[in-house]
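Quick one, tokens below:
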């Protein structure tokens, strides 16, 4: 009973009409800085800004990890580039946001867990799933210290369901070397589930140290699993629904950096796919993410969201 009383099950989150701005941190799933984005169109934050009439400030960048010290990639990580860029803009007056009216979203992990990182071996051999998920919490802590108070922490989607990490995968633009696809699929499934559970525990432990913060845990894993299992509830294209193929598929010759066969779905057929390519969600999937996150920022009930504080 004492544990139940201690848990912030009463948390109501933000009020309707409270949020007017949102700031994003993450990787290609969230990068809204260019067009077309990694999903072949607009990233989900662009749709959310339109759906909710919010002002968007996007610091997420494609290819990013949480920290290049933990899992190195030659792209702008959250801790090493995105947070410093945000802090610089707030210090020099370029960016002035009312903390009460601003939501901060953090969605990271795809590149930390994937090929050329934890899945195949990080450049930092002591790095584990624990450190990379602690990094996501550290991002939230740094933003809190700078004055941020409203957060949406998006957990990792089921990467084992993407074509890249499926057991039926093929040589593609992200990995065309030899591999055991079944081994990758099983390992990725475990990394994602463990990472999400670790994050949940770390979030609950962090709450007492962040007085006045409103923290929502958004279940990207649950949402994408439901889209995968029940595509008829989410996809609306003119082609047969597909969750095991993608809009822009390129099959490579093994150990060859040149694609041998590419197929691309066009027009309204594209909205029948869960995935844009072997790793990224489709435009239709991103519109679903935007719809759900918009509801959270508007203070509405959302089945994929738990307000922890």
């Amino acid at each position: 009973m004492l544990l139940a009383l201690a848990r912030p099950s009463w948390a109501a989150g933000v009020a309707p009409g409270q949020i007017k701005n949102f700031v994003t941190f993450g990787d290609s799933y969230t990068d809204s800085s260019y067009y077309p984005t990694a999903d072949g169109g607009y990233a989900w934050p662009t749709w959310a800004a339109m759906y909710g009439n919010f002002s968007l400030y996007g610091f997420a960048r494609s290819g990013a990890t949480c920290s290049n010290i933990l899992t190195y990639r030659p792209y702008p990580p959250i801790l090493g580039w995105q947070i410093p860029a945000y802090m610089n803009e707030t210090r020099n007056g370029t960016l002035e946001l009312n903390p009460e009216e601003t939501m901060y979203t953090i969605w990271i992990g795809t590149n930390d867990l994937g090929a050329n990182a934890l899945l195949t071996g990080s450049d930092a051999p002591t790095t584990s799933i624990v450190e990379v998920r602690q990094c996501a919490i550290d991002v939230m802590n740094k933003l809190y210290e700078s004055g941020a108070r409203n957060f949406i922490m998006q957990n990792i989607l089921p990467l084992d369901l993407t074509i890249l990490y499926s057991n039926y995968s093929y040589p593609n633009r992200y990995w065309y070397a030899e591999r055991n696809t079944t081994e990758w699929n099983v390992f990725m499934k475990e990394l994602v589930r463990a990472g999400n559970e670790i994050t949940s525990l770390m979030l609950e432990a962090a709450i007492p140290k962040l007085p006045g913060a409103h923290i929502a845990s958004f279940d990207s894993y649950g949402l994408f699993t439901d889209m995968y299992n029940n595509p008829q509830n989410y996809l609306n294209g003119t082609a047969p629904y597909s969750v095991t193929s993608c809009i822009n598929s390129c099959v490579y010759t093994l150990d060859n950096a040149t694609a041998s066969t590419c197929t691309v779905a066009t027009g309204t057929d594209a909205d029948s796919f869960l995935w844009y390519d072997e790793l990224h969600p489709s435009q239709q999937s991103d519109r679903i993410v935007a719809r759900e996150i918009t509801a959270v920022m508007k203070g509405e009930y959302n089945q994929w969201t738990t307000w922890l504080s």
